Amino acid sequence: MSLRLFHRLDTAKAQYYHFKAVTVAGMGLFTDAYHLFSIAPIMRLLGHIYYESDDHQVRPVVESAMLAVALLGTAIGQLIFGRLGDLAGRRRLYGLALMLMMAGSIGCGLSMGTTRGCVLASLGFFRFVLGVGIGGDYPLSATIMSEYANKRTRGAFLAAVFSMQGFGILASSIVTMAVCKIFGRIYPSLPNDPTPKQADIAWRLILMLGVVPAMMTFYWRMMMPETARYTALVEKNVLQATQDMERVLEMSHSQIAEGHPLQPSQSSYPLFSKQFLRHHGRNLLACSAAWFLLDIVFYSNTLFQSKIYNKYLPDEGHIKKVTAFEATFEVASLQAIVACYAMIPGYIAAIFLIDRVGRLRIQAVGFIFMAIVYFSIGVPYKKYWKQQTSIPFMILYGLTFFFANCGPNTTTFILPAELFPARFRTTCHGIAGAVGKAGAIIGAVGFLMDSHSQDGHQNEEKKASEMRVTLILLGGICVVGMVATSLFTKETKGTSLEENE
After folding, report:
1. Given 23, 167, 202, 226, which is the most exposed site by the fewest CB atoms within 10 A?
2. What's the pLDDT at 471?
3. Which residue windows are transmembrane per the record (predicted)?
């Protein structure tokens, strides 16, 4: 079957539909980040509402469960939707993943019950539903964007989709700060009532507002045609693929028919067969290992910035007594600052460099610079800890996010969408992503339990020593991540998806 259509897709200039696809696909990542990373300030608010007798601190096991249940749902969603995306088509499931995200988002805000246990159990259930939708969105968004893009700027478009994660983190911080500031002024705390009952409405409102960007793009998702590569290569319907591309790209049927013919793979070996493992097993292992190692580091850091900086937060360091809204505002503002000066610039740098430098080089360099920074702040951590200002430490610590986003955090999302055949593409992306989320659970829950173990009766020197060990360990994981990058068999910069098969 000779297909000139792919040549036209690979050489098509960037046009309106490509940027529309970035927006539609990116809103899923935006919603993902909004909910996954809003939980840290929300936990602070819940601590003041439901754990007044426990020094306003949510119990470690509860906080760990809230983190793990969403990440577990994400891993399950990646596996299920990844496989179904190859069996039933990308577009048919795209709207379903978004509907699950919207249902989970609204459900989190409507968490029911008259007791603390009921409310938190309900919240955990809906975070799991939300996680399944988020997980489903990962392989579908990455694959749809990769199959629409041309080979010259494919990496930039995929990086642009993933960069919405950074804007989602910033949006969740801004919304949390705004809600806390507004509620704090309308319902000021009283000496005999430091946590107004309206605080229970505030955290629900913050979570439910996360559904807005998803709702804005739902119609566009439902109207998107199936990708031409899936229709032509998996469904074997070249005519329909050509007609679909005529609808969305600025080219006529005659233009699509022009160009050099490309011969797609006719192999029929099944998933995980000997032939599959021989051709793609090493790349699947490399994608999974790199994503696993990256997420251990990335999620432990991003979710628990307030634990890293606990000396400088009034609620954590007991510098002064603060209200529920003030404590939550402090954590959210810290996240916003780091997102603005480190995270988002890293995503933007990746967009500009990914198609110039190459995926593997950016990933390896990102891992090694992350390791250097972690060693730089971990080895002399006691020195930073004794300083009265956190600015030098905060700048260095922020660089870990910059090099992660202009490095493995972006490339682990891109590479699985480029390396595998069309009929296995979302499946393999889902497997790699699910392995990554296993690392996220280890990193987030492990870091949380470790930080809480330091909150007992240890002296400050002991706490600093344990944090030093944690930071050095994260640096060591980054070194292993750089080594794992060498497992990949090829660079995908400037190549067509069919060549990579």
Report:
1. 23
2. 87
3. 21-42, 62-81, 93-113, 125-144, 156-179, 201-220, 284-304, 332-353, 360-381, 393-415, 427-449, 469-488
**From CA 247, how far away is CA 224, in angstroms rounded?**
10
Question: Residue 326 has what pLDDT?
Answer: 86
Q: What percent helix, strand, coil does the chain show, rounded to 5?
A: 80, 0, 20
**C-beta neighbour count of 336 within 10 angstroms:** 18
Q: How far is CA 483 from the centre of its chain?
A: 23
pLDDT for res 457 = 47
Q: Write the pLDDT tens digit of every residue in 304-313.
A: 665 666 555 5
Place of tokens 């870990």: 400
Q: Which two three-digit tokens encode residue 56? A: 């306003």
Token pair of 165 as six digits: 């994660």
Residue type, 404: A
Residues of the chain with pLDDT under 50: 1-2, 259-260, 262, 316-319, 457
Question: Would you say 48 and 196 are in contact if contact means Cβ atoms under 8 Å apart?
Answer: no
- For residues 50 and 122, give the distance between their C-alpha atoms in angstroms, rounded to a whole number: 15
Chain centroid, CA 292 distance in Å = 13
Hey, how many other C-beta atoms are within 10 angstroms of the C-beta on 114? 7
pLDDT at 294: 96
Phi, psi torsion values for 358, nearest 5 degrees = 105, 150
Dihedral-angle region of residue 319 (phi above 0 means left; psi in -120 to 50 means alpha; beta otherwise): alpha
Q: What angle do CA 135, 495, 151 make, to 5 degrees?
A: 70
pLDDT of residue 190: 64
Euclidean distance between CA atoms 388 and 282, whole angstroms? 49
- Cβ atoms of 137 and 28 within 8 Å: the answer is yes
Report DSSP letters for 192-243, one per residue.
Answer: TBSS-TTHHHHHHHHHHTTHHHHHHHHHHHHHPPPPHHIIIIIS--HHHHHH
pLDDT at residue 289 in the model: 97
Identify the sign of the CA torsion 143, 148, 150, 155.
negative
CA angle in degrees (0–180, nearest 5) for 37-43-48 = 150
CA atoms within a 13 Å half-sphere pointing along the CA-CB vector of 249: 27
Q: CA triplet 12, 16, 18: central angle to 5 degrees?
A: 60
pLDDT digits (tens, 9 = 90+) for 157-213: 999 999 999 999 999 999 999 999 999 888 886 656 667 788 889 999 999 999 998
pLDDT at res. 44: 86
Q: What residues does each domain of the chain span?
A: 16-254+275-489
Distance of CA 344 to the CA centre of its chain: 13
**DSSP label of 250:** S
3-state secondary structure of 3: strand
Read off the pTM.
0.92
Return the CATH superfamily for domain 16-254+275-489. MFS general substrate transporter like domains (1.20.1250.20)
> What does the alpha-carbon distance between residue 368 and residue 407 come to, in Å, rounded to a whole number?
10
C-beta of residue 407 within 8 angstroms of C-beta of residue 363: yes
